[in-house]
Amino acid sequence: MAKRIVAIYDRGIDKNLMQGFDVLEKYGYELTLVEKTVNEDELAYQNSMLSVEVNGPDGTPINEEVFQYLDDAEIIITHFAPVSRRMIEAAKNLKIIATLRTGMENINMEAAKERGIKVINAPGRAAVAVADFTVAAMLCEIRNIARTDEDIKTGGWTKKYPNRTYSDNMCNLKVGLVGFGDIGRKIATRLKGFGTTILAYDPYCTKESIEAFGCVPVSLDELLEQADFVSLHVRLSPQTQNMFGAAEFAKMKPTAIFVNAARAGLVDEAAMIDALEQKKIGGAVLDVFREEPLPVDHPLRKLKNVTLSAHLAGTDIGTFSGSIKIVADNLEQYFSGGELKNVVNH
Q1: Domains contained in the chain, CATH given
Q2: pLDDT attached to residue 1
Q3: Is this structure's pTM higher than 0.70?
Q4: Whole-number mean pLDDT of the chain?
Q5: Which residues of 36-68 are buried (b: 16+ CB within 10 A; e: fewer)?
Q6: What would the pLDDT profile of 81-114 be if each residue is shown by its tens digit?
Q7: Is the separation of the CB atoms in 108 and 56 below 8 Å?
Q8: Which residues are designated catalytic?
Q9: Cβ–Cβ under 8 Å, residues 279 and 254
């Protein structure tokens, strides 16, 4: 009897992409594909992603069909589908849970630990996409690219914008990276081509590892005081929740641009909006929000010193296909007698 792999697809990583795990069938596994939520539209999909981050896997619904295949499942592969305690308890033979993301917010890690089930992820899957987006977004904001596009399409021809006194060449600006993991390092590599001075704060990185990328290691306060861009690249955890509040915005330069393509929960939204409305900082580039889609009457929609995007930083085709390859290669190596890598719950 074949062992079962249950792969749960969604609107991000669809059935065709998830079918790529059929390469594992040669190791004696039967691949079963199940849809996360039947006939889910884009808005419902976005809401479910947000629900996972806010309510956790046990508070986010899933297609009940999944439970038909869990009894003999040894591996569950998920993208944004929640893997709840109920699912883990139903899968009596479960050995591995694989998420096609970096984060584990959609998995009940405590239940997996209790059962001795290994959880693996796809580190770096969106790093290239997020790094590209972040640098592009910085240029878009400081050079008014989105603003002039909207202005011309609505009949205008504005040549001077409120940020003209500090809309400078990137080689004359300092970018402060809060977090210097894979994404931060890729951003630094891209910015070096502009001749930008790059400040980096990461309490988990050595001075030498930061300097090896041509960056300047600094404290968080030093970064806030000196940087023309302050860009967040930190994982959301109880320790980092609301790590950016009124005190941090008050330390930034009045011309500084705040960039968040990481997690909305890292920032005290009310404090950020106040800093933008009162011109305590120069502006912001935001790709993540406490509520998505952003409500029509949300104050961020009314601000002229903000560039907004609809949680697009990590979403390109390379991210999704790359996720499949990272996890499939890892499992193939493991099935061939190698070490299972990217285990996040040792």
Answers
A1: 3-125+316-335 (3.40.50.720), 127-308 (3.40.50.720)
A2: 62
A3: yes
A4: 96
A5: bbeebeeeebbbbbbbbbeebbeebebeeebee
A6: 999 999 999 999 999 999 999 889 999 999 999 9
A7: yes
A8: 263, 292, 311
A9: yes
